[in-house]
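Troubleshooting: if your tokenizer reports a length mismatch, compare your output against this known-good record of 194 residues.
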Amino acid sequence: MVDAGGANLGAVRQALQRLGVEPVLSADAAAIAGADRVILPGVSTAAVVMQALRRLDLVGVLRGLQAPLLGVCAGMQVLFEHSEEGDVDCLGLLPGRVRRLQPAPGVRVPHMGWNRLHRLGASALSEGIDEGDWAYFVHSYAAPVDGHCLLACDHGRRFAAVVQRGRVAGAQFHPERSSRAGERLLRNFIETGT
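Known-good structure output:
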């Protein structure tokens, strides 16, 4: 697990421990580069996460990883090219821009709470997560639904809930707080990496 200061580090660690995995929390470039799997948690803003990754000199490490990488929440958002949140260039591992969710009648921003997942694609990463399963979200910005989107969600508009392109994947929802669907996503990532 990349220690970039995300507020959900402890919760993600506990979720992995429940699956029988003892994660290593590190900001050390060599340790991250040599890991079998890498998780980038992030409860923060894209600008703050990118600032931390730059300060820790981890941007190049994450871009050059050969191991599977899973970004969570803001950790997923920084996988994209750019985020409107702080108008910041991100890692560029996935194409597209993260944009602010728009409030509307009956649509509050931030999007906080349980929402249903919709299957758009198939992958070992999303195996066992069914159409209509529930996941827990806390965010105000979201990634686009494109050909890399495996699971989507609706909150005023449809947005990407789980994405994957090769070894790079992300979950907008919090798997550590998302009961069965979150546990399955983490288990799939641990067991297959894809």
